[in-house]
Amino acid sequence: MLALNVMPDGPGPGLEPDLDARWFGPAEREPAGARELIAASWERCRALGVDPEGGISTVVLSREDLTRRRAANSRLLKVAEPLMSSLYEIVAGSGYVIVLVDADGYVLSVMGDSDVLESARSVNFVPGVRWTEKQVGTTAIGIALASGRPAQVAGDGHFCRAHKAWTCSAAPVRDPGGGVMGALNVSGLGAKPHRHTLGMVVATARAVENQLGVEKALADLALASKYQAAIVEHMSDGFLTVDAEGYVTYMNSAGGRILGVDHKAVVGQHVSDIVDFRPVILNVLKTGEGYIDREFMVNSKRGAMHFIKSAVPIRDERGELTGVVDVFREIRRVRRLVHYMVGAFANFTFDDIIGDAPAMREARRLGEMAAKASSNVLIQGESGTGKEMFAQAIHNAGAAKDGPFVAINCAAIPRELIESELFGYEKGAFTGARASGHPGKFELASGGTLLLDEIGEMSLDVQAKLLRVLQERRITRVGGEIVLPVDARVMAASNRDLARDVADGNFRQDLYYRLNVFTITVPPLRERKGDIPVLVRHFLGKVGQKLGKEAVEVTPRVMDVLMGHDWPGNVRELENVVERALVLVPGHTLDVEHLPGYLRQQQAACAPEPLHARPTVEIRPLAESERATIVAALKAHKGNMCHAAKALGISRSTLYSKMRRFGVSKDRDEVSPHGEATVS
Predict the structure, then answer these.
(1) Is residue 519 classed as helix, strand or coil in its secondary structure?
(2) What does the pLDDT look like over 611-641, one tens digit per residue?
(3) Which among 285, 372, 280, 287 is positioned nearest to 328, based on CA atoms?
(4) Helix axis angle, 532-547 to 556-564, nearest 10°
(5) pLDDT in tens, 117-131
(6) Are strands 405-409 and 449-453 parallel, antiparallel or unpaired?
């Protein structure tokens, strides 16, 4: 034990062992570790240069500063002062003063007997005064703040003479995080400490800490509840909780919107009373088994309702079912997410459609008009002309541009599966069907556009079902019973002459007219060769940027070869030729040797003939002759389509098709006497 001496008139450099009883009273009442705490405090006081003859604190807050400090410690004061009052009721009339200080040692609150309060004022033991070891030497408050432990100091245990007539007992008050936020102290005149006083102070301090912990827990719980409420209320999914009997305990606003009910008014009602169908959540209450992301379709007075749902049973500590949390999401939101993730959207706009040929301008004009309506669109043209590009451009310019764009190639799907691909199927609908069922393309395209590419390859029986869907705007999954509304614009594309297919009995006439609201014919590249230079420059830039060859030019010989080719693969073939050539070209000049072999051979075969080898009779290109013959027939029969077609030996629909191909108008007044016709 550290030995300290005391001068006769006050604390000296140390304390003699035989004087210990003067500090603590009888040994059996000495608090555990009290000697060590006081001795350590004396050492700190010496190190701080505290005057043993002093002890009156001169650090005093102004009234404004004290008000601000009390406000900063309002949580501590709110809890501590009622408990201080309760403690004072126990010790009232016994000559004690009860004091609360903050973590910096400033006195925040004082209560006690009037005579003792007067004596406390004599040593400046009042609100606003700082009461730490540096200002007043060794006291129970100073030890409690410095060590974080309860302490009791009596008589000569005080370092400064001003406090030797006092006995003080203090305990630190910790916040819920464990930090010291202040100290509670009971002081009285007299040099004989009472050990039970310290016990009461410690108990009161612990009560303050416990109450602070409870309030912190309640505040955290309230905050967490606010966060949870904010999260749940701002969910776009429906959120519903029911108790073990099926009565609604909570529903968020999204749930009310989806189910068509007042989400606040339904609380307390049985879940089966708030909807006009049997809620599937009742099965969870019955079986105790939940599920995650399961598809449900129900019929209600509001129509078919289609959800993705998750239900989680809630159990108590004994494992008893106490309720269910039900989260339900409208299928259209799920589809939007799927479309975003898998890229089911349109990339092209009308700005991406390149070409200034009259037939191309007409196709673009019709496409822009179709985009303003919601009617079905039929896009016809040879393979590789850009039919899907037109479909995407119409979608992106229309009202459903924010919806999905789903394309299905009817020629690439086996005939026996096309129906399930279009309309979807329920579980067990056929051998090999997914156990969970599968949505069809009409469902996936809900709110957007469905492109039926190569529709001419669709079987007649599926054509009949497609016609019914287009008429009724409803579908039923294969093997299912629920009728689902169709909310998708339908476009169809074909490289076949559907009018001829109708005449030949290979395509339903009623379906043809249902699809043929807006008909757009995309001309083949051989009929708009004037666009080839523009397309070549476009592909050189597009592909060249991808390959890091952006400054490549083509020679006149290459352009002659490209202009001389008939392009059976159309624009797609031209793009592939340019890309292949760019891969092979070593520098910045693309020449004939970089073209595919079939184009090089064609260039050699089409070399200029010697003059003596040229025919003496005039030979015109076949397309030009065919066009001139059509113009002559129209002129001869004064624009009568039936008579002109009969004279040419073809059907009227074939004549229309050829007129569109050659850009010939049926208006008799536009046919010149020289056998030319205007372009419509």
Answers:
(1) strand
(2) 455 555 566 677 788 888 888 888 888 888 8
(3) 280
(4) 120
(5) 999 998 999 999 999
(6) parallel
- The tokens 């014919």 sit on which residue? 521
Asked if CATH classification 3.30.450.20 holds for the domain at 235-332, the reply, yes or no, is yes
Dihedral sign from CA coordinates of 616, 662, 454, 507: negative
CA distance 609 to 348: 44
Residues 35-52: tens digit of each pLDDT: 899 999 999 999 999 999
Residues constituting the chain: 680
Topology annotation, domain 525-608? Helicase, Ruva Protein; domain 3 (1.10.8)
Please state, in angstroms and rounded to a whole number, the distance separating the CA atoms of residues 56 and 133. 11
Can you read off the two tokens belonging to residue 424? 């979807």
Q: Find where tokens 């037939």 sit.
A: 359
Alpha-carbon dihedral 147, 151, 155, 160, rounded to 10 degrees: 20
Q: Are 142 and 64 contacting, i.e. CB atoms less than 8 angstroms apart?
A: no
Mean pLDDT across 454-464: 90
Instruction: Output the CATH code of domain 343-521.
Output: 3.40.50.300
Terminus-to-terminus CA distance in the chain, angstroms? 115
pTM of the predicted structure, to 2 decimals: 0.53
pLDDT tens profile 514-543: 998 889 999 999 999 999 999 999 999 888
Checking if the pLDDT of 15 tops 50, the result is no
Q: What 3-state class would DSSP assign to 589?
A: strand
pLDDT on residue 30: 53
Residue with tokens 């040099």: 191
**HSE-up of 346 (CA within 13 Å, CB side)?**
29
Alpha-carbon distances of 24 from 38, 49, 151, rounded to whole Å: 11, 25, 12
Closest to 434 measured CA to CA, from 426, 423, 444, 443: 426
Fold of 4-216: Beta-Lactamase (3.30.450)
